[in-house]
Amino acid sequence: MRCVIARFPFELTKNGVLETMRGVKPEEVVGESVIIGRRTYPVKQVGQVITRQDRRDFSAGEVLRAMAKLGFTCRSLPQNTAPARGLDPLQHASAMLGAPAAA
Q1: Can you tell me the distance from the alpha carbon of 95 to that of 23, in angstroms, rounded to the nearest whole number?
Q2: Packing angle between helix 14-21 and helix 60-70, nearest 10 degrees?
Q3: Alpha-carbon distance 46 to 18, whole Å?
Q4: What are the angstrom distances between the C-alpha of 29 and each of 12, 38, 46, 89, 100?
Q5: Closest alpha carbon to 74 in 43, 39, 38
Q6: From first to last of its 103 residues, what are the pLDDT tens digits of the chain?
Q7: Among 81, 80, 78, which residue's Cα sits nearest to residue 30?
Q8: pLDDT for 87
Q9: From the centroid of its chain, how far is CA 31?
Q10: Rg of the Cα atoms in the chain
């Protein structure tokens, strides 16, 4: 399959990606990921290995689209359904002052 990543054309196959990623130790996944074989890789790591380019040169979306077209399972960032609750002004001021010293 022909795809464009970081403005460069690549001819990728599922077997080629499996072979390229064989023996590559997965980094810790904190964002988007791709399941290749039985391992889960960060999408930027996969992009760097298969394109031999710096991770700053391509977006995660480009690699996710290419991997999905090849038939790999891709996981994007989980959507936060509830807004994060911050401290109210009184709690914030209290936290800034710290806990009272024991007498």
Answers
A1: 48
A2: 120
A3: 10
A4: 23, 14, 12, 35, 40
A5: 43
A6: 898 888 899 999 999 999 999 999 999 998 899 999 999 999 999 999 999 999 999 999 999 999 999 999 999 876 554 555 677 888 878 777 876 655 5
A7: 78
A8: 74
A9: 3
A10: 21
| 28, two tokens | 């810790």
Tokens of 8: 């460069």
- H or E element in which residue 11 lies: strand 8-11
Question: What is d(CA 9, CA 16) in angstroms, rounded to the nearest whole number?
Answer: 15
Query: What residues pair up with 40 in beta bridges, in sequence order?
Result: 35
- Helix, coil or strand: residue 10: strand
The encoded tokens of residue 15 equal: 């077997």
Enter the tokens of residue 13.
């196959």
Ramachandran category for residue 12: left, alpha or beta (phi over 0 → left; psi -120 to 50 → alpha) = beta
Instruction: Please tell me the distance from the alpha carbon of residue 50 to that of residue 27, in angstroms, as a whole number.
Output: 15
